[in-house]
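Subject: two folds for Thursday's group meeting

Dear M.,

Sorry for the delay on this. The cluster queue was jammed most of the week, so I only got both jobs back this morning. I'm pasting them in the order they finished. Each block is the input sequence followed by the predicted structure tokens. Could you check whether the formatting survives your parser before we put anything on slides? The first protein is the one we discussed after the seminar.
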Amino acid sequence: MMAYSEDHIALAAEYALGTLDADERAQVETMMSVDKDFTAMVQAWEHQLGVLNQMVGSVEPRPEVWDRIRTAVGLAEPQAPLLLPEAPPPPPPPPAATEAAAPAGVADNSNVVRLSAQARRWRNIASFTTAIAAALVAMIAVGAYQPSLLPDALRPKPRTQLVEVKTPPVPAAPSAQYVAVLQKDGGAPAFILTVDEASKKFTIRRVGPPAELGNSYELWLISDKLPRPRSLGVVGSGDFTSRQVLASYDTDTIKAATYAVTIEPGGGSPDGKPTLPPVYSGKLIETVPPAASAPAR
């Protein structure tokens, strides 16, 4: 697009605003017919002014305005002008003064006319720019507080934001815990067995001496509901051994059973039966009841 002077930009804006006289409008329309870029600039001004026009309501002119319009277009008789008495003509100036003042006067008048037209044009542009700024401020304020008053094309689109609210998981109440001290004939504890009622997982801790070389400790469950002792596995060589092999037994059997440890050949009983009588035994007692989930408030 070619570069335009400030006067060309002002002419395009005033043409869109509708403040040019007939000669200036004809000049702009002639330029538009031969210059596509100038036409695009005028259309851009018209588009910007069209947004402001949507915010202005219609106003009915006063009756005297219509009378003046009809008079101007020849639909009504113009009012006879008021005639004042003619004043006597001023005395003619001296010839030398007239010849000297005439060229200067003509030059001054042309400068005054040209500067006056430019001043009027830039006053219009300044007023127009101020109106645009005020209208934009008004549009922003209305859009923020009362968007329903704006036209559909200028109304801001509603924004929808999805917020995911995660409910923290409710902690499960602690289950009952049981413990058995396995010892020999009321002597010092050799093993401590703990059982969780919910998961039916047991942990056995060895607190006595380890098995002799070539032998293994094996844990057994002994119950009146079972025809023979059931092996719960070989106790590991470490201090703690945990397994979840009580799931096949009901809670009453687990709580009422006797738990015993035998000394078996290395790796445990070969046939699933104790090879020797139990050395250490004991029964479960409840240490943590299931109702102790949270302190009372």
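Second protein, same layout:
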Amino acid sequence: MPQIQHINHHIWFKACKPLRGKYKLSTNCVMVLNGAYLYNKVIKKDFTRRQLLKFVTYYDNVRLGKYITVLMKLGFIIESSKRKTLQLYSISSKGIDVIKELNNSYQIELVKFCSMYEIELD
């Protein structure tokens, strides 16, 4: 049996596929948007690029900045306020809609995968 993180990655990419086409987002953009959503839910406040970078940890500052720029241009992340020289961002309602679709898509792909390989979900 493959390790659980391998299964998770497999399901993640399958779950992202319909979103990539519908919203014209790369899998990496979806991952950053998901990280922004999780940051907001866990930390319960808006974020700077640096805070999101520390939270997501997978990307370097340049790449994360590019993904945030794309997400902002498409309206999934918005500039919420400015404190001194720091720009704060938040996930928009449009971005939250994408995350809801991602969660639904992930659940569907998880059930398909487990059913295909006769894995029982607890």
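Two things I noticed about the second structure. Strands lie at 77-83, 86-91. The helical segments are 4-23, 27-43, 49-56, 61-73, 93-116.

Cheers,
T.
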